Amino acid sequence: MSRALILTGMHRSGTSLIASLLAQAGVALGKSLLAPKANDNPRGFFEDADFVNFHQELLYARGLDILVARDFVLQPDATETERARALIAARADQALWGWKDPRTSLVLEFWRALLPDARFLLVYRHPLDVTLSLARRLQLVGFDFYAALEAWYAYNRALSDFARAHPTRTLVCSSYAIVEQIDAFRAALAEKLDLHLTLDAAQRDAIFSRELWRQPAHTSVTENVLRQIHPDAMALYDALQTRAALRDTTSLQNPSAEQNALAQFIQQLPTPLAAGQQRALAHLLAAVMDTDLYERFSVAHARQTIELDAERRAWENTALARERALRAQTEWAAPRLQELERLERNRVVRALKRVGLL
After folding, report:
1. What b-and-e string marks burial along 159-171, b requiring 16 or more CB atoms within 10 Å of the CB?
2. Coil, strand, or helix at residue 219?
3. What's the confidence (pLDDT) of residue 44?
4. Contact between residue 92 and residue 114 where contact means Cβ atoms under 8 Å apart
């Protein structure tokens, strides 16, 4: 009997690492996987191109990319549903299969309806860590760190709502905890999802690289600051920690002088913070957490802005050139069309005279 395991979580939440573990343990995650990227996921994304393309086109058709607003609702239409059924049918002959794509978070109920026996592994990561990782990938459109927190909230609220509605078919885990507690993860898969996979520390160590993991150092100050910048995200993170079978147990470190200064500055602001203040403080927190990353991102964003502006001007110049050419062609053709119309009228008049109608 075919069984499906669906792995998802917000972008940059460690789903690629978890997917690589599952693939090594025998879960068929697709025959046509996305190619690795040297500066992104050098070990691979472990994403089935068919499912990724499907989810991307769902979003593109609605004018969106990966960063969605908190109130976004995605409901595939009849044509999209039939396409999803075809993806499932093409894999129904495999004993244990599945896919990994963060965008799946936005359509979990849709897939549950099509795969009523599927199991769901829902992975989460701290919202600030995800935001910094998105910046590292230059995926913060408009240099907006707060928008990344909003997207984190949208994706992870969908995970939390689904897990609450379907507790017997979901396993919620911190990606950090999966790495640190691989034996407990194997046991949780068996107990909660009835998946008995071969997973151990040796397999994890063969594919895991802490240099690629880039886990920021959190302090009590950064946690409190983030709670003031985006209280909803942190409340949701607390809820995920409570619900998770494996939760993040990373210890807090001592705050830096810069972090303390930021906290003191925020204490002087009136509460609740205005939206503009929240956005500005999200920038400051990112800069304090990783100054080098913030500087690199700022430079790269400025370069992207310049390139996009140059591209916009090039398109404007092309449009103006085409408009001038069309105007010149119209001016050239107008008198000739008038002459043709005059000749045609004369021809018709002569013909009518020949038959005695004029």
Report:
1. bbebbeeeeebbb
2. strand
3. 65
4. no
